[in-house]
Specification:
By secondary structure, the chain is mainly α. Helices cover about 85% and strands about 0% of the residues. It is built from 14 helices and no strands. α5 runs antiparallel to α13.
Length: about 300
């Protein structure tokens, strides 16, 4: 039977999948990506900071009293969080939610490659296969097997690949900060910092958004369900099942994004798109399953000793 933690992580992954489709709907109805990015960061950041202050008041106050910690969070907020949000939304704008989400899911392969380089070792068999699957999947999505031409726009491919790189920074940059101060505090403040700076730069009040029923529902899906709900459910679920299993279960996100795009937006995917997505998901699952198996082995050895 699936336990509570697993269900929470699965729901979080599905909610993240819905956020991409919500963003695609809004942009297809004339809402500017700058406005969406600003709203998502500012509203979500405010809610998460309030939650952090209510549940982790001492940590929040200690962080706010330290200029060095705040500077580190600010650097992460720009290079990791803001860049990832902005590039991902632009990837959706130039492709679709399903394709953009799958391309962003190249990030675990990039993270694994960075770790292998830092440890000065060759990739294992599973890691090597994941790299091959990731490259093959990206090539199939981009070309549909016709290497002389692109099946998606060059802008969509570039934004998708950059979003994978920024997603890698999003995971690696705040690791020590999160370990010491907690995800809610770090991510909440990072959203406020990046959202404030982005708002000053792009001045989103210049853009117009009609608050129709459809736009309002999509905005709720993007911010409330796809960011606040998804993030808090993932944190709680991952704390119950462990980060490795949590990451493995959250890989339902691109699958959910594709299904939502087909059902809600009548998006059409060619067979070659699905084949490419399959290869990329195999790459992610190979890495996640490898980590899960290693963790289980370590636990058994500890139990025996």
């Amino acid at each position: 039977m699936i336990n509570k933690g697993s269900l929470m992580v699965l729901f979080a992954g599905i909610a993240w999948g819905l956020s991409g489709v919500s963003g695609q709907y809004l942009m297809s109805h004339g809402v500017e990506v700058n406005l969406l990015t600003s709203l998502r960061l500012m509203i979500s950041g405010t809610v998460l900071c309030v939650m952090a202050f209510m549940t982790q008041k001492e940590k929040m106050l200690r962080v706010l009293a330290s200029p060095n910690i705040l500077l580190n969070i600010f650097m992460f907020s720009i290079l990791g969080l803001l860049m990832n949000q902005y590039t991902y939304m632009n990837a959706i704008k130039h492709t679709n939610a399903g394709t953009a989400t799958v391309l962003q899911y190249l990030s675990p392969v990039l993270i694994m490659s960075v770790v292998a380089i830092n440890e000065k070792r060759m990739p294992s068999v599973a890691e090597g296969l994941s790299i091959i699957f990731a490259i093959l999947g990206t090539a199939v999505i981009a070309t549909h097997g016709q290497l002389g031409s692109l099946a998606i726009t060059p802008e969509g491919l570039v934004w998708g690949l950059i979003s994978a790189i920024t997603a890698t920074l999003y995971v690696l940059m705040p690791a020590r900060l999160i370990e010491k101060w907690g995800s809610l505090v770090v991510i909440g403040l990072a959203m406020i910092f990046s959202g404030s700076l982005f708002t000053v730069i792009v001045r989103p009040w210049r853009y117009h958004m009609d608050l129709t029923t459809g736009n309002s529902i999509a905005l709720f899906g993007l911010i409330a369900i796809g960011t606040i709900f998804a993030y808090t459910f993932f944190l709680k679920g991952a704390s119950l099942v462990g980060p490795v299993k949590g990451t493995l279960l959250a890989a339902v996100e691109p699958v959910a994004s594709v299904l939502f795009a087909v059902v809600l937006l009548s998006e059409f995917f060619y067979p070659m798109d699905l084949i490419g997505m399959f290869f990329i998901m195999m790459a992610v699952l190979l890495i996640s399953l490898r980590d899960f198996i290693l963790l289980r082995r370590q636990k058994r050895l500890q139990d025996l000793s």
